[in-house]
Amino acid sequence: MFRANDSLSPASVRGSLPKRDASFAGSALPVVMGIVNVTPDSFFDGGRAFRPAVAIKRGLALAGDGADILDIGGESTRPGAAPVSVDEELRRVLPVVEALADKGCLVSIDTRKAAVMKAACQAGAAIVNDVTALTGDPRSIDVVAAAGASVILMHMSGEPGSMQNDPRYADAPQEIFDYLAGRVEACVAAGIPRHRIAVDPGIGFGKTPRHNAEILGRLDLYRDLGCPLALGVSRKSFIGALSGDAPSERRLGGSLAALLAGVAGGADILRVHDVFETRQALDIWRAIGLKRAETKS
Fold first, then answer.
1. What digits encode the pLDDT tens for the residues 25-62?
2. pTM over cut 0.85
3. Could you list the active site residues?
4. What is the CA radius of gyration of the chain?
5. How far apart are CA 43 and CA 47, in angstroms?
6. Could you give the 3-state DSSP secondary structure of residue 235?
């Protein structure tokens, strides 16, 4: 049995796990997850998709650009963000989830509240994306198990309002690996099959730019958990910190660079704001890799 204070080696975990699945929630990996923030205080879009009709339009546009999954969120979890009530979050997200699911889109609900998870899954969401890895609400793990939903378990140190206040790790990649290993085991024990679980190291959630770079440099570590690996680097502040304090609207180049490094490290689920540009970057990166492989053979 894994204990939170144990430190696991990748080799010890690898030897006990089944082969990783090649799909998640019915979609072949890798997949692009388009972000639809139904919030007035999104760090990137500033609330431009706050009204349901606008959010639905944005979701359909992202699907048209090639998003495999649409991730709908009604509560900002950016650094310094304040929580919102369950009723307000439901008011924001349910019309969007229902409309996009009715259009045949594969929908994820980005929430840490069990009541929102349950209602969103009933409205058509097939994936729960939780920044607290189903620890933020004691009912969450049972709700996801009962709904038959897939889940993305993310690591976050602290709460959004304070998570960037001097985060510290002795070995950030290993400590996050240990935490996620424990959460995967807890979900499996609660009746969520491993093939419905993905993990996310939580870039920018209680980490300094140095921690983020260390995690991205060792992403292959997390593949040893036997689950698809989700990665969210799009437009995040660490990109600005590493590139002359560029504002969010000028972080696309850095986002794509971090994303491609992540794919090279084994990322399977790419959570992004810029779906078309991400697809284009991936297509060119793969084409060059294929040509290089042909040349070597």
1. 999 888 999 999 998 855 455 455 568 999 999 999 99
2. yes
3. 236, 271
4. 18
5. 8
6. coil
